[in-house]
Design brief:
Blueprint lengths: L1 E4 L8 H4 L3 E3 L4 E3 L3 H20 L9 E4 L10 H8 L5 E3 L9 E5 L1 E10 L15 H12 L10 E9 L9 E10 L2 H12 L9 E10 L6 H16 L6 E4 L5 H6 L4 E2 L6 E2 L7 E3 L2 H16 L4
Parallel strand pairs: 1-4, 1-5, 5-12, 6-11
Antiparallel strand pairs: 2-3, 3-14, 7-9, 7-10, 8-9, 13-14
Helix pairs in contact: 2-8, 6-8
């Protein structure tokens, strides 16, 4: 299975401000989504076309390019998982890591929302009659920082917080959205349990907590490393050393790996600027990437 997505983070009209163009001086191809991940789709199409046109034996290939990966794969996750279950391996054409390395692990990603319901009161005349939702939420956020473990790759970030009505009113409501990244499913289970057990410091405040680790981590399992070793051999035969690494963000490959299908991610071409104005891919990397992918498909199918 060759897996990826058509959608980008860019709004309608971005192509006018950030036109698709080739820069001969730098050897780069620019444009919105060209790195993440239109070039990966092009490489996949070229690899399969080459195998067919040269009548080279290869396994049955299913291509699945979704349209909602950048917003969480809410409508496509079931399709991705159902399709992957019929496959021996999943090759994800997401962008490679700096230097062209593959991604043999990815963090799991989750989003949690905490809404605090307090009691409004006049902040000057009768503050004791109130129970501040903002103060409660602030204490919860500070407590949750104890979950952060940078050395192990666990991050907890309160990305947005809103609340209150006026400075002279004890805040009746406040809400925060918290991004969580974890390297392993065991961490995901533990953190979800912590959020589910949150209780207010001020018993007059009521908490509503929703969310989960929606995208499970892609862990560096034996199945992943076996597939990576095969990819290294193919790359070596083409004169390239294929490295590996970890990505802090998730992809649809997280889903396929989590259900036990051997998955190798980050097989797209080198480049830079995902989700940024300088987004580009290196033109010279495209032909060998297609040759590499074609060779890897042959090896997975038992060819040489």
């Amino acid at each position: 299975m060759l897996l990826g997505h058509f959608d980008t983070v860019w709004p309608v009209g971005q192509l006018e401000r950030m036109p698709f163009r080739a820069d001969a001086a730098t050897g780069r191809l620019h444009g919105p989504g060209v790195f993440d991940m239109k070039a990966g789709i092009a490489v996949a199409l070229l690899a399969v076309r080459a195998l067919r046109e040269h009548d080279l034996p290869h396994p049955h290939v299913t291509m699945l390019w979704t349209a909602d990966e950048e917003i969480g794969s809410g409508t496509s996750r079931d399709l991705v998982e159902r399709t992957a279950r019929d496959c021996d391996a999943v090759l994800v054409l997401e962008p490679s890591l700096p230097g062209g390395a593959a991604k043999t692990s990815r963090k799991g990603c989750g989003e949690f929302e905490i809404v605090a319901h307090g009691i409004a009161a006049h902040a000057g005349l009768n503050p004791g009659a109130g129970a501040s939702a903002i103060h409660e939420l602030a204490r919860q956020i500070v407590d949750l920082q104890a979950l952060q473990d940078a050395a192990r790759g666990i991050t907890v970030n309160a990305g947005t917080i809103v609340g209150g009505s006026r400075a002279n009113v004890v805040a009746e409501t406040a809400r925060a959205v918290i991004d969580v990244r974890v390297p392993a499913m065991a961490d995901a289970v533990a953190i979800e349990a912590v959020f589910a057990s949150l209780r207010p410091h001020d018993r007059r405040v009521r908490l509503e907590v929703t969310g989960a680790i929606a995208r499970p981590p892609l862990e560096r399992s034996r199945a992943v490393t076996t597939l990576f070793s095969l990819a290294q051999e193919v790359a070596g035969g083409l004169g390239h050393a294929l490295g590996e690494g970890t990505a802090g963000g998730g992809s649809d490959g997280n889903f396929t790996a989590a259900i036990g299908v051997p998955t190798l991610d980050g097989l797209g071409p080198r480049g830079d600027g995902a989700h940024a104005l300088h987004e580009h891919v290196d033109l010279q990397d495209l032909p060998w990437r297609a040759a590499f992918l074609a060779g890897l498909l042959r090896r997975i199918g038992g060819g040489q």
